[in-house]
Amino acid sequence: MPQVIASLTYDDVDAAITWLCDTFGFRERVSARVAHEGVTYHAEIEVGERGLIMLGPPFSDRSSPRTHGGTTLMLVAYVDDIQAHFARTREAGATIMAEIEDTFYGDLTYRASDVEGHHWMFSQRVKDIPPEEWDWAPGS
Fold this sequence. Notes:
This protein is an alpha+beta fold and 140 residues long. The chain has helices at residues 13-24, 65-68, 82-91, and strands at residues 6-9, 27-28, 34-36, 39-47, 51-56, 74-78, 95-102, 107-113, 119-125. The strands form two sheets. Strands 1, 2, 3, 4 and 5 form a five-stranded mixed β-sheet that branches. It has a four-stranded mixed β-sheet with strand order 6-9-8-7, with helices on one face. The longest helix is centred in the first third of the chain and has 12 residues, at 13-24.
């Protein structure tokens, strides 16, 4: 297991799994799905070779971004071919928050929102730029 795992809340966990796998190319860990009376209470999706995200429904202390009206986090996932990933994401109808751009730290990135409003940034490292050579300003 990874040392840090994100746990995201979705109003419809089953639909979110399908959407995340179809749109972003994630893979469900089928043996990890736990359901009771037709409601999925726990599921896991794999992101690349080492990433893992747990999914669950709302509880008294947490809600989905769609229900809550916003989110306070962005998940970052590295992909091998950002152009192909971006094309698949756009074709699937995801909300594109920012087009592919070249960053001051050597990545190509784009941002998208998922089916219930979680924010994602997808990145591909294209060159290693040491921090002392970054040309950036706070907030950029």
